[in-house]
Task: structure prediction
Amino acid sequence: MEQDMKQIIINLETPEIHSLEKTGEKDAIAKASKESVLLQIINGKAQLKYSGGDSNAFALIIDGKSLAYALDDDVKHIFLELAVGCASVICCRSSPKQKALVTRLVKSGNGKTTLAIGDGANDVGMLQEADIGVGISGVEGMQAVMSSDIAIAQFRYLERLLLVHGHWCYRRISTMVCYFFYKNITFGFTLFLYEAYTTFSATPAYNDWFLSLYNVFFSSLPVIALGVFDQDVSARYCLKFPLLYQEGVQNVLFSWRRILGWMFNGFYSAVIIFFLCKSSLEPQAFNHQGKTPGREILGGTMYTCIVWVVNLQMALAISYFTLIQHIVIWGSIIVWYLFITFYGELPAMISTGAYRVFVEALAPSLSYWVVTLFVVVSTLLPYFVYSAVQMRFFPMYHGMIQWLRYEGQCNDPEYCDMVRQRSIRPTTVGFTARLEAKRRSVRRSESI
Amino acid sequence: MPSNTASSSSAPAGSSKSKRPKYSKFTQQELPACKPILTPGWVILTFLVISVIFIPLGVVSLFASQDVVEIVDRYDNDCVPTPARTNKVAYIQGGSDKSCNRTLVVPKKMKQPIYVYYQLENFYQNHRRYVKSRSDSQLRSVKDENQIDACKPEDDVNGRPIVPCGLIAWSLFNDTYALSKNNQPLTVNKRGIAWKSDREHKFGKNVFPKNFQEGNITGGGRLDANKSLSEQEDLIVWMRTAALPTFRKLYGKIESDLEKGDTIHVTLLNNYNTYSFDGKKKLVLSTTSWLGGKNDFLGIAYLTVGGICFFLALVFTIMYLVKPRRLGDPTYLSWNRVPGGGR
Result:
């Protein structure tokens, strides 16, 4: 709490209640206490309202005894409104049960994600109640740790937990889900488009085992590597530019626009792959010996293009390449070629149509390689153009930090400060509000 | 369990009481990494490289396709005599003489080998019921002769198994073409038209046709019962089902050159019934290039994409020069676009 914050204090230290306590009538005390608390809450709300335009920061302080009345069913919603309008809320001397109840009130009343942090056995209720419970292991024993979702060793590690790991996890999960939809739509939609040419009789365009193993061998490891290892900016920059965390709060990486954008990417990729392969390969001969392509050859070529496209799309979408990413992305493509070679060597009873299709039909024909190159590049071009335009002219916040890092301005503290400040939006809660209040009071004192 | 958050505090390194987890680059996610960024240089370079590769490839492909000489002749309508044209299905199913004479003129010199194809349109060889109607094990070995379950309805006749069974074999294409040039017959080599793996591994050398086309409805051609399946190359070519409803299949090769202006006479037997489903039949003579048959699409598409990339490279160069980027202009960040923020 800063010194120049306005304080709203709610307690039961009024003279009427003192005099009632002397009489000892429980009912009268309870009734009077409740009325007093309600009155103080309403006064507090009025204070908040009258200074609304000024964006002064308020702090609410309430003790355990008053909290018991403030959490009554008919009062708690007003209490919540008052609390949400304040920059800080301090509930002192509250029991473990009250801690849990306050957490539940905020969670259900606000609909936002709550995080609770605590180190003692009295925090267990609160940790369990919140969406994310962070337990601190240490002096007060391990009860908090055992009932928490995440355990840390010191309170100050919370900063790193949220800003670095929270940001990375949000980004990893949202990108992974979007990409997963994309790659399956690309694959499945080509099957659907092929059906239009088989009178919708459900003939698969690819061999059965190709269909089954798509999500196992040829496109799964890059997604897993993305979900586990991807970083947009390193930990140092996450801490240096804390506003990056707002990307998660504002849900910019998993908005409907982004989800539908990735799905659309899948659709048009499938359309381009299918129609380019079909127009290039049929009906004329496709190799020098005059042989014409059948279902196995068209299917094999399209499947190769799909494997290349989804893996290269991954390479275009991420901006963090360790050895692991290289191995899984290029490895998946190589595994496809190895698979089609060795599967083709299995007796024709098992490999049916794919028997020797690669070594005999596909690999020796130059048109296979020429068509693959063409289809893959053409499919990825629209995304590449979009990505180049977006990165240069409309970068998202992490894009801006990547530019900073690239241009070497991260070591210039004034420049970084400028970027940070210009990105903040005015708020009435939290750190920024208190900073604004301090600045305003400084300015006022200077002008006087 | 404690998570692996690194501490930058001063726990004495090497102290035996320290609970600090062992540092490794992998667990601390500080692996050496390459962090590429789409700078203007990379973008323009990529577009230029693509156009430099694609435009010549497109030109080469287009030339290859233009070099291919192709003669296509649709004969299914013209080969039905005029009085029978009102009911073509009845004609084709009847017993009259189906031979037909066609004349083809060679537009450009064609170097050998010249491939002879038959092209069918609106014929769905890729229909699921049709594709499944075969027995691969029966085709390969004699002892699996009775594995005919998948072949219904063309699986047996009066209890005796049909070899080769199934709808694909039953609907074997049976138009024949006899070509001649200047009254000299042109030999059409019908060996080596099927894929080697089919001939040697999928169709057995000691499997002979049995009870073939003996049912009530004749679906297509007959087979010589004295030739083993691995020598029946027409059947092998036919049984490699096509991907799309318009397809060509190799009939044979001509191993002599044809000069420009040569007149080829084709005496064909118009046996195959495509009239019930409005299909088309065409005879195709074509040379090949290193890329295959005649298809301008690939060459033109390569040129188009190469041209687009070159154009994009120019556009991006101009954009990067004209509009210098102002860093840190955050007015379009999502939480600043909506006044007062909010989700």
